[in-house]
Amino acid sequence: MFKQFFNPARRRNRAIADAVYARIVAAARQPAAYSDWAVPDTPLGRFEMVGLHIYLFLRRIRGEGAAADALGQELADTFFLDVDQSLRELGIGDMGIPKRMKTLARMFYGRTKSYDEALDAGDLGALTAALRRNVRPDAADWPQAAQLAAYVVQASDELAGQQLDVLLSGEVQFPQAGEGKGQ
């Protein structure tokens, strides 16, 4: 049982997942998302943006073999550990963490399903609607959702063009927010 914790391959995956996660967080924290696209700069808004970028990376490596699956699992674990830590920093006690984590996990996986359906269908309108519903549920109208949707399509396309071996080494590039088509 303890052998898995001292496994060099697991430590290597952990380091790679940490490198990918750092790039994902940097992409999710691009100022244009918050200033130009009106994504709320709140804990929930940041959760949405980090989750969106995690989703895009996981979508890219899905079905690419055991090494990609292992990295994807490490990355998901890293994300949810970070969410757990963030909840604790917000002052949520040990008793409230499991319920909130379950809710946030359900939210994340529900979003990935709707984003997958829209991207698989090439339906920019459905993607825009899903982003509007998830990122700004408080806003009756959020015209910048179309700009975020265009960014998501661009990011998905650019990730598809990145070599798997480069991604599995921890190198991932996301587009600059606000500089692509329709953004």
TrEMBL record:
It comes from the Bacteria. Residues 36-174 form the Ubiquinol-cytochrome c chaperone domain. InterPro entries: Ubiq_cyt_c_chap (IPR021150), Ubiqinol_cyt_c_chaperone_CPB3 (IPR007129), Ubq_cyt-c_CBP3-rel (IPR014569). It holds the Pfam family Ubiq_cyt_C_chap. Belongs to the UPF0174 family. Belongs to the CBP3 family. This is Cytochrome b pre-mRNA-processing protein 3. It comes from Mesorhizobium australicum. The lineage of its organism: Bacteria, Pseudomonadati, Pseudomonadota, Alphaproteobacteria, Hyphomicrobiales.
